[in-house]
Design goal:
The protein has helices at about 1-10, 15-30, 35-40, 45-60, 100-110, 125-129, and strands at about 65, 75, 85-90, 95, 120. The protein is an alpha+beta fold. The N and C termini lie far apart (about 40 Å).
């Protein structure tokens, strides 16, 4: 978590109580959180401040926007290693997966890929029953 707080300071932003709280919430999250989810967990930060700070974090490269099965944007901390997800279209459950096909895509297309986001969507085993 300290890495994100340091990156925020290095980007020229003050390290306020609200910003620290939002980063703590995202750091402890196991899945991407909507602005409303983040606000519901915060003790010291109003909804408008959560929204403004998430936008600031997004511009500073601290968070990544992820669209879940319900088309609502969720946010997660932007770690150095990338993550891929599979999302259930019925219940919205999100599971991280370790498969990455960037090397194969680069080989097939000749593109030098600088970034990517891969989301698979389907029906989880629990909802398929």
């Amino acid at each position: 978590m300290e890495k994100f707080l340091d990156k925020l300071k290095q980007s020229g932003f003050k390290l306020t109580r609200q910003r620290t709280e939002i980063i703590e919430v995202l750091h402890s999250a196991r899945y991407p959180m909507t602005v409303r989810d983040i606000h519901n967990v915060c003790n010291y930060t109003d909804f408008a401040s959560v929204y403004r700070n998430i936008e600031l974090f997004n511009k500073a490269g601290l968070v990544r926007k992820v669209f879940t099965g319900n088309r609502i944007a969720g946010y997660e901390l932007q770690y150095d290693s990338h993550k891929h997800k599979i999302i259930c279209l019925k219940c919205g459950k999100i599971k991280e997966i370790s498969i990455c096909c960037v090397g194969q895509v680069q080989a097939e297309t000749g593109f030098n890929i600088s970034e990517h986001i891969i989301e698979f969507k389907g029906i989880c085993p629990e909802c398929a029953d």
